[in-house]
Automatic annotation (TrEMBL):
Residues 1-22 are annotated as: Disordered. InterPro entries: NO_sig/Golgi_transp_ligand-bd, V4R. Gene3D superfamilies: Trafficking protein particle complex subunit 3. It holds the Pfam family V4R. This is 4-vinyl reductase. The lineage of its organism: Bacteria, Bacillati, Cyanobacteriota, Cyanophyceae, Thermostichales. It comes from the Bacteria. Residues 138-200 form the 4-vinyl reductase 4VR domain. It comes from Thermostichus vulcanus str. 'Rupite'.
Amino acid sequence: MTTSTSRPDPRPAVTMPTGREKHSHYSYRDFFRFNRDQGTIIDWNNTQNLLLSEDFIVGLQTGLEREVGDASAAVMYTIGMDWGTRDSVYFSQWYEREYGIGVKQSNLLFLLETWWWPFTAQGWGKWEVETESKQKGFLFINLFDSMVARTLGDVGKPVCHLYAGLFAGFFTAMTSRELGCIEIQCYAMGETYCKFLLGGQERIDAANFWIAEGASAREIEHRLHQL
């Protein structure tokens, strides 16, 4: 997997590949620029990436649980939310530079796929956004091959708190609405993919209550549509 940082890089700017104007960087070789001499990995958006092993994720998770117990979920969520908030700013900048149009004037689905594509390339998994219920103030995000859940394995509980925070932070910043996010189905619970609910806090609280009662993701979806 890779992580990235948008901090200013003091080294010389990377020369982007010929054909940059095509906006087509949807392949591993196009998206990443490896420089063995400098020991760097720079992506299409001039962001520096780091290679990390699955052992890092296991160590981070177990270390947090050892230090703060059950509060580790809230810590990971908070980290993710800060990440999503910061990334929304950086994304808005490179999106406008890349396509010559502001995020507010863009097609929603194209915008979201453009935001998530770098995460997919970096190994964070593929996603699918269900926008059918957005008029009701919430939506669902399906995440396939979660880096965290895949690494931790079947532990019988949701573990993708970092993702939930990331989605909450990004969407809150982009919509200027206070949104929360909760994982209502997880690969680490033996499911085939992870599922998140994104919406206002009252809906997140309701979903959290139903999860505690043992409701499935399908049951939670049904109850939300009945509200």
